[in-house]
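[step 3/7] inverse_fold.run input=structure_tokens len=191
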């Protein structure tokens, strides 16, 4: 594969966006956001077609716990740990996040009412909440916009949840990655 073909492939499978938050107590967190799409065109009669999208592709968001020290004395994170939380974001999740980001950070407004956690949505004006259910498994995602930082919390159960605080510059990087993901979703017809 040529360098140009490899570069074009990054439209659908760019390097992950990583944020590391180690601490001396060993209770730090790291976040990985990774778009993994491998569009496969399916020809149909009449010259039309569509992109097939296997379930193992998409936009994955992970929060890993800090697990001791690695080479050079740097913090090590459990990307394969049972304490890792992972969720897959779809187009609706990405567009809700980008809309909330715009409202809070650029318009000096609140997260749209319908995107806040219930039952008292008025009590959480700066929290975006979304919920995924796959068969017997469910995931709750909350993103809190604070004046000088934000907090992403992913909860798989009452016993398995992780949070990471993002500085504003890290949030800008996250917004850019989500924009890139949205563009890729639109190009291959992901809804």
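[step 3/7] decode complete -> sequence:
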């Amino acid at each position: 594969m040529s360098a140009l073909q490899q570069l074009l492939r990054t439209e659908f499978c760019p390097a992950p966006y990583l944020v590391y938050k180690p601490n001396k107590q060993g209770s730090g967190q790291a976040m990985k956001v990774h778009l993994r799409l491998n569009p496969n065109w399916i020809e149909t009669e009449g010259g039309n077609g569509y992109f097939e999208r296997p379930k193992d592709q998409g936009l994955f968001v992970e929060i890993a716990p800090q697990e001791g020290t690695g080479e050079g004395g740097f913090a090590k994170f459990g990307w394969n740990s049972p304490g890792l939380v992972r969720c897959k974001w779809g187009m609706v999740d990405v567009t809700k996040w980008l809309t909330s980001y715009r409202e809070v950070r650029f318009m000096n407004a609140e997260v749209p009412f319908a995107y806040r956690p219930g039952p008292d949505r008025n009590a959480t004006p700066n929290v975006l909440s979304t919920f995924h259910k796959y068969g017997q498994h469910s995931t709750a995602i909350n993103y809190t916009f604070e004046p000088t930082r934000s907090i992403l919390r992913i909860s798989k159960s009452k016993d398995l949840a992780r949070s990471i605080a993002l500085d504003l510059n890290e949030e800008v990087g996250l917004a850019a990655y989500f924009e890139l993901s949205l563009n890729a979703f639109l190009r291959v017809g992901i809804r």
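[step 4/7] annotate
The mean pLDDT is 90.
The domain at 3-188 is CATH 2.30.31.40 (Transcriptional Co-activator pc4; Chain A).
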